[in-house]
Amino acid sequence: xxxxxxxxxxxxxxxxxxxxxxxxxxxxxxxxxxxxxxxxxxxxxxxxxxxxxxxxxxxxxxxxxxxxxxxxxxxxxxxxxxxxxxxxxxxxxxxxxxxxxxxxxxxxxxxxxxxxxxxxxxxxxxxxxxxxxxxxxxxxxxxxxxxxxxxxxxxxxxxxxxxxxxxxxxxxxxxxxxxxxxxxxxxxxxxxxxxxxxxxxxxxxxxxxxxxxxxxxxxxxxxxxxxxxxxxxxxxxxxxxxxxxxxxxxxxxxxxxxxxxxxxxxxxxxxxxxxxxxxxxxxxxxxxxxxxxxxxxxxxxxxxxxxxxxxxxxxxxxxxxxxxxxxxxxxxxxxxxxxxxxxxxxxxxxxxxxxxxxxxxxxxxxxxxxxxxxxxxxxxxxxxxxxxxxxxxxxxxxxxxxxxxxxxxxxxxxxxxxxx
Length: 420
Description:
CATH class of the largest domain: Alpha Beta
Protein name: Urea ABC transporter substrate-binding protein
InterPro entries: ABC_urea-bd_UrtA, Peripla_BP_I
Number of helices: 14
Strand content: 15-25%
CATH topology of the largest domain: Rossmann fold
Pfam family, one: Peripla_BP_5
């Protein structure tokens, strides 16, 4: 590990990682209300889940070690906050939520192994988890085989739909296509250099991006496309190619700790992001916490949530998050989407009057969360969320300022015609 990566991860994220790992594997956060006044367990739990008269157990499955911990620790924190708030308000069907946390350790086979444990051994009624598409693809067969319910928080490439997953992040039409349309229209962008980490999401996302750029943006073309292993820290070669190619847009889908090195090396190479347009769909405030605002200021990000959103729901959420995890913590898009998971599950369970997964899957369509920090969300029949798309401009303070927002919610379409 290079000194640069070591310092970036250790100094900026050590506190956050320790918080994520500090929780005991099995615990609950509060015990203020009295529980046990809900409907009989035999009525609401007919499939042998970990549900008693007073408690229901869920799983949390994210990486709190390895290169993806920089991104996933915030999701763990948000899910625990939601669980604490739900418990404080009376729980779910009169039952207190207890959680079992497992570490996917930035390793896809480990995610599958831990998912099986949570479903088969622990009988979790639902699981909040994963970040990368590789981890989601690794656990999906497990959830479908054992009929579990996963709440997945990350923006992703789409091209998937499952009865056993609620996708609380955006899919491609809501993020990739909307972002490219924006940068083409507002910046007059015609040439694009595509970068990504080397796994499912960046490669598939850039495949969709290339089809949109070359097939739908008049006169536009891709002038370069490269991928790097997870944890990669040496970007000088591709930065030199970018300087020679001079694309209108650097389109970056680099994930995890690699972002620390990439943006520092961009700046060191003299690339001024106030002059060279860079659009990312992978960097949130969580990553900027390690990258440093001074190294990414001027970059644009396209997603549905930024910590700076000015609405009553978000102000309340940010205040509660910082109260629980510290004033210096930051909140990115996936962190907010992870917060939605426990709340959407609670509302669906109460609509269904049952913890049974089949009943929850059936009852999910139409569930609305009016208190979402992003403003408002609704579950579509395809198990994705209606949501707005926003573009943020990175500042020296490590925050994104919203410079564009779609006027309406965008209907999710995980299988857009012509992009598969």
